[in-house]
Specification:
The structure holds two protein chains of two kinds. Chain A is mainly α. Chain A has three helices and two strands. In chain A, α1 packs antiparallel against α3. In chain B, a hairpin with a 2-residue loop joins β2 and β3. The chains are: A mainly alpha, B mainly alpha. Chains A and B meet through α1, β2 and α3 of A and α7, α12, α13 and α15 of B.
Chain lengths: 88, 618
């Protein structure tokens, strides 16, 4: 029960959770915005007929988002278990 | 069947949907055989519609419920992967299914703003909101706002924003289902709208969220098969490999060659030919933040059994959405490649009047729409086209530049463009219909539940018993659906273009209070209420001011424009305003009570069970 969890544990848990949030959102921002600033030079690289800049917006970033959420869910789970605040 | 018994049903999900998928494939094969032995096309198209609506109605009726928590949150028993499929169907609207590939066809790279914007937002949902909202255990999004910012003022503002972003959206879904039904069944649009309405109500009226969840899973399967099959078909025919997402690089290369031959100035893969970089990135931002704020999406994550499942479920949701969105650019590339080939391989780079394919005339002659135009006229007959083109000086045929296709016809017409048989055409129609119905159902529940749970139960009659609450909920559901259908029947073009606004409105009105409510304990009720009002007002002011001006009439010259931002990205002003106002007002008002701070502390810890106890008989 959450009532039995001490303030220190709760705070340590939240600080790790916040760090994970910042890391995840940094990766999100990189693949949502930053990488697409360079679409013009990236389009000069063509792999299997795909210009790289086009590919990143059409497929690459999406794959990163899917993997990122599953990774985040697993990491957050590990944090919850580490501090004993996970669900039964 | 034991379908009406929840325990049995959720225990046997794999088996039940396994049989369903097998049955659905069997049905498609049956249609293929029937079409080969010469059964009339009309019969095949009607069979698809009747069969799919019949299944949804069956699931809807089997999932009827008299339990409040089943009606509002499907009894919180939906496993992550199934909730992911349901969210996928909930999310992908008729417009995504029908219009996305068309948008990419026309805009090329710039259209990818929608692909990115409508997927990346799920990262925000997973990290910032879904687990905490699930832990809280509300029935609706305004319910959370009303509790965190203790009082009905926050609840009411939340309801206003919810209504503003969801009602135009549902009208568009009813409209889309009417269009698809009228085209595939060959019936009048006015009647088809009510056929669509019927399809929507059978899924949701008897069983609320529980019924909608299980029909949405079924609808997801129909829509994804319908979307992938034509793309796989084209990929196999042209490149011999049935993975369109991998092979369309080849189509992109050919398109670039054709662009050279046909003298098309706007290259498909070149960025920023339609949008400026600023428009492009603002649009991505607004769509992403909007995704993370739309109540009908957030409430899907109230239905998982645990907080842990809620997080994982966001991953599955995005995976199932991704399957469609990473196919859309392939769809667009194959269609464009096929179409350009008609011209690039023709003599003198002109398509001869005698060689005009039948599908152009079929789609061109649909009444009330300009789906195909050639040389500036509606492509109804070869004679009409020839006359118009000859007047423009084109003899014998017309060039690529004179052909204009409407975005919304690309997906629905691609099977006929690529010469696929009628059973594929019918399948794609059923997929589009499933997409429109499932989104309409999610939106309908979001609106009707806010009215019945938040307005009626929490604000008007808190003593109402279970039976009365459910009755009110069902009546309101029908009323909202009828209102949307009557509005859709008038073909309100302005309402339809307002759908794109929903994302900016939701982002500006709801994102800041939801995120700060969890992540910043110091957020006060006054701060959140004023923040919501400020964000929402700024965005609405800009939307209306930018599109209509202050006399509310388009194109009279009094429209406003701040830094040249497009109306679709109006959230770019509202979101920061909401955050700043919430922050500043919170700092100048007294800190939330000790009790509220402890409430937020508990919200952040997954364990210990959900916080909101909804009443003994729920």
């Amino acid at each position: 029960m959450s009532d039995n969890i001490s303030r220190e544990v709760a705070e340590a848990h939240w600080s790790k959770t916040k760090n994970l949030m910042l890391i995840t959102l940094a990766i999100w921002a990189f693949f949502s915005f930053f990488i697409h600033f360079f679409v013009v030079p990236m389009n000069n690289i063509v792999i299997l007929g795909f210009p790289l800049g086009f590919y990143m917006a059409a497929q690459g970033s999406l794959i990163v988002f899917v993997v990122l959420i599953f990774w985040f869910a697993a990491r957050q789970n590990a944090i919850d278990e580490e501090f004993g605040v996970a669900e039964d | 069947m034991a379908l009406s018994m929840k325990g049995d049903f959720t225990d046997n999900l794999g088996k039940i949907y396994g049989i369903y998928v097998g049955g659905f494939f069997g049905f498609v094969v049956l249609m293929a055989i029937l079409s080969m032995v010469g059964v009339p096309d009309r019969f095949i198209l009607w069979s698809y519609m009747a069969m799919t609506i019949g299944i949804y109605a069956f699931i809807g009726i089997m999932s009827r419920t008299a339990v409040v928590s089943e009606y509002y949150v499907a009894g919180r028993s939906v496993p992550a992967i199934y909730n992911g499929m349901a969210t996928g169907a909930d999310w992908m609207s008729g417009a995504s299914f029908v219009g996305m590939a068309g948008t990419l066809f026309v805009l090329g790279y710039d259209g990818l703003a929608f692909v990115l914007g409508w997927t990346g937002g799920y990262v925000l949902v997973a990290v910032l909101l879904a687990p905490y909202l699930r832990k809280f255990g509300a029935y609706t999004v305004p319910d959370f706002l009303g509790t965190r910012y203790n009082g009905n003022a926050a609840r009411l503002v939340g309801i206003v924003v919810l209504f503003a972003c969801s009602f135009t959206y549902i009208t568009a879904q009813v409209y889309a289902s009417g269009i698809i039904a009228s085209q595939f069944l060959g019936i009048d649009f006015e009647i088809a709208v009510f056929a669509g309405l019927l399809g929507i109500l059978v899924c949701s009226m008897l069983g609320g969220m529980k019924a909608v969840t299980w029909t949405q899973v079924a609808q997801y399967i129909v829509l994804i098969v319908a979307y992938l099959l034509p793309a796989v078909w084209m990929s196999t025919v042209q490149f011999g490999i049935p993975i369109p997402q991998l092979t369309y690089g080849g189509a992109l290369t050919k398109i670039a060659e054709y662009e050279q031959i046909l003298g098309v100035a706007k290259a498909h893969v070149a960025p920023f030919t339609t949008y400026s970089p600023k428009d492009y990135f603002f649009l991505i931002f607004c769509l992403m933040v909007g995704t993370a704020s739309l109540p009908h999406i957030l409430m899907r994550f109230f239905t998982t059994p645990t907080v842990r499942e809620a997080r994982k479920s966001v991953g599955w949701s995005l995976f199932f959405i991704f399957l469609l969105y990473f196919t859309a650019p392939a769809y667009a590339a194959f269609s464009k490649f096929n179409l350009m080939g008609l011209f690039a391989n023709a003599e003198g780079l002109q398509l001869a009047f005698t060689a005009i394919p039948q599908w152009m005339l079929n789609w061109g002659s649909i009444e009330g729409h300009q789906l195909v135009t050639i040389c500036g006229v509606k492509a109804e007959t070869v004679m009409a086209i020839q006359t118009a083109c000859e007047a423009k000086g084109f003899v014998g045929g017309f060039p690529y530049a004179e052909l204009k296709l409407n975005n919304d016809m690309i997906v629905l017409s691609t099977p006929s463009i690529a010469g696929m048989p009628i059973w594929v055409v019918g399948l794609v129609g059923a997929g589009g219909f499933a997409a429109a119905l499932s989104t309409a159902d999610g939106l309908l529940l979001a609106i009707a539940n806010a009215l019945s749970h938040d307005v009626y139960y929490k604000m008007i009659d808190p003593k109402a018993d279970t039976k009365r609450r459910l009755m009110i909920a069902k009546i309101l559901l029908v009323v909202v659906a009828l209102a949307a259908a009557f509005l859709a029947r008038t073909k309100p073009s302005d309402i339809l273009s307002m759908v794109a606004w929903a994302f900016s409105i939701a982002a500006a009105g709801l994102f800041a209070p939801l995120v700060l409510g969890v992540w910043w304990k110091r957020t006060t009720s006054m701060g959140a209420i004023l923040g919501m009002i400020a964000g929402f007002s700024v965005t609405m002011y800009y939307l209306i001011g930018n599109v209509y001006g202050f006399d509310l009439v388009k194109g009279t010259g009094d429209e406003i424009s701040w830094f040249g931002v497009a109306s679709i990205s109006a959230g770019i002003f509202g979101v920061p305003v909401a955050f700043i106002v919430t922050y500043v007002v919170s700092l100048v008002t007294p800190a939330p009570s000790q009790e509220m701070q402890e409430f937020v502390d508990r919200l952040r810890l997954p364990g210990g069970g959900q916080m909101m106890i909804q009443g003994a008989d729920d």
